[in-house]
Structures are given as C-alpha cells and as structure tokens.
Amino acid sequence: TSFLYHFAAQIRTGLTGEVLTPGMAHWRPVNIKQPVGPVVTITPWNFPVAMVTRKAGAAIAAGCSVINAPSEDTPLVSLYMAKLAVEAGFPPGLFNVIPSTIENKRIIGKVLCEHTDVAALSFTGSTPVGKLLSKQCSDTVKRVHLELGGNAPLIVFESADINRAVDGTMLAKFRNAGQACNAANRILVHKSVYAEFVEKLAKKVAKLKMGNGLDKGISVGPLVNSKAHTKVTSLVESTLALNTTNVELITKNQDVNDSEHPFYSPAILSCRENNELPIFHEEIFGPVASLFSFDTETEAVEMANNTRYGLQAYIFTQELSQAWRVSENLECGMVAVNEGAISSANNPFGGWKESGIGREAGHLGIDEFTEDKLICFGL
C-alpha cells in the first residue's frame, strides 16, 4: 500500500507545471502536464502487489485509466485489487484486469500494444519480451516504460565492514529466493578479504531454512515453477562442468523433501578470477551466490560494467570518496551503498542499457504517464 499512499499524496503536487522565460517581450509561456491517456501495465509474478500498485498508482494519480495484464502465475492478486478498487469507489473502467494463460497473453499483449486507443505501455519482465513489446508499440509511437532484467554486481572493497557486507549480501541475494530483477547476481570481493567474506557468508547461508513461507522460521521458499528450477540447476551444473581452476561449490544448504514444489537449496559458488563463466553473464534468478575476486577499484568497476544490463549495483566500503567515485562510474540506474535493499515508494526505480527505460516510484514515477504541453500567451 505504500505506493498507493505515495501517489495519492502526489495528486496534490505531482502534476506541477512551470512558468517559462519568454522568448519575446509580449509572450507569457507556461508548461503544463496532462494525462497521457489509457495505460496498459503488464506485470510479473514475483512481487504481484507491489508491481501493480507501483504502476497503476502512478498512472491513476496522473489521471489515466489502467488495463493490467498480470502474470499467469499470480492473476488472483490483480483480480482482488480490482474488487477492492470497486469497493473503494473507483469509477467503472478506471482499473481493469485481463487475466490469461501464457499462450493467450502473447495475443492479448500484441493487440494492446498495437491498439491506437492505448497511449502508453508499462512492462516489468524479461529483456527479450520487453524488446518485443517495444517493437509492437513502435508503429503507433506509444509511450513505453520498461523495467527489465538485471545482472547486478555487489562489490565488497577491502575497507568494507565485512559483517555488514555479509548481512547486506544475504538480503540482496536471497530475498525472495533470489527471484528479483535487482538481486545481487555477481558478488565481487577484493582478494584481501575474499577468504574472510566467504567463510562468514557460508555460515549465514547454512542457517537458511527452506519451506512454506507462511511457517515460522522459514527464510527461503521454492522457486516459482519447475522451469525456473531447471534453469538454475543447469546454470550451476554447466559452470561446474567446465572444470575451471578455482571454481568450487562452497556450500549447498539442506534439501527439502517436497516433490510438489521446486525448492532449490541456497548455495555459494566460488569462481574467484574466472569472470568469463556463463554464470557471470546470465541472470541467475535463484538462491545461488556466485563470487568473484578482484585486485583494484578499476578492475572491480570494469567487471561490474561488463554486461548489457544496468539495473542496480551494490557497493560496500567505508571510504566516502570511493563510494561516491564508484557510484558515478557504475553503468546502472541505482546504487546501494552499504545497504542490501533500497527499494521504496520514495526512491525512483529503473535501469540503464538493456535493463529498461524510464522510472517507477519516487517523484519521477508519475511523469511516465503524463504529457507536457506548452501554452504561450501573447499580450
């Protein structure tokens, strides 16, 4: 609900225009913001409430109607939100939901992207699908907002508070069983603290307990489906099968005797200097921490930027100048300094490169659903 409260407050102040400097003595120009029009939001399964409210809250606050096409894995959340919207007094047609199978969703998505009555698309999901939707919107020159895949680096410098870095890594990597676009995907650790960091992280990972997330004491649930489990398993096994020097499965948590749900045991894969492995370049989307080592700050930044993705990065250092310098040099839309999670209704969320276009939440989120209009008065 934090996103809804945030954008509800922005209704009073979010659509602010500005008085411009006149180019002629008798002109009085102003710029105003207006709703872009009907918005289509296509949302994923992994944070089904937040993903919908972060998009729909901003669009509705801007004055737009919304059509939500939720993930086929979590349609009930969006349907129940539509029910609550009616009970709250939303007028008919303001918030609409189209649930479907994955096969029908491809058809529905194409129709919505190409429809001339749809003014904007906001999508969260994989980069390949985002590229496809963007192409489908191009013929009608729609406003497109994309929040796509990530390959987030987490950098631990030699000056870092190692205990804090370990705690931050646990949150950044294993939250939601690693199934988050901004999860730490490549953990880069300075060689001087590599052994200490691995030892302390391994102890924390060994304490993770898998099971039903509604049960007390459970910290890691299953992956979303068997396809996701197969992908993570294949990525780890193919990395180990390369028999590359110094690549080692440091720890693998306990297995869960549950044939109905695709649990993957939390693990640490120590890769050291082997940063050309497939797991360095592919988004894991599972509870596997892949660790790599580096010598210098320059090397760490180069490794971090060696990807087509640029959603988020994490750095741990106690040197203020280094924190600022590295933050500026990282090619990504968000940087967490000495923190394992920074997402909130107040902070803009979005990436660079193939991780997306535009921003959600914060003071920028509402702008995705507005158009600028110049009005110039001649006196």
In short:
The chain has 379 residues and is α/β, with parallel strands linked by helices.
Summarize the structure in words.
The protein is of the alpha/beta class. Helices cover 34% and strands 23% of the residues. It is built from eleven helices and 18 strands. The chain has a seven-stranded mixed sheet, with helices on both faces. The chain has a six-stranded mixed sheet with strand order 5-4-3-6-7-17, sandwiched between helices. Helix 4 runs parallel beside helix 5 (127-138) and helix 6 (162-174) crosses helix 7.
Residue stretches low in confidence (pLDDT < 50, at least 5 long) are none
Strand ordering within the main sheet: 10-11-12-9-8-14-15
Helix and strand element order: HEEEHEHEHEHEEHEHHEEHEHEEHEEEE
So how many helices?
11
Strand content: 15-25%
Radius of gyration based on Cα positions: 23 Å
Q: What is the first-to-last residue Cα distance?
A: 47 Å
- What's the rounded overall pLDDT mean? 93
Kindly state the number of beta strands: 18
- Based on Cα principal axes, name the global outline: globular
The portion of residues assigned to helices is 25-40%
Secondary-structure-derived class: alpha/beta
Biggest beta-sheet profile: 7 strands, mixed
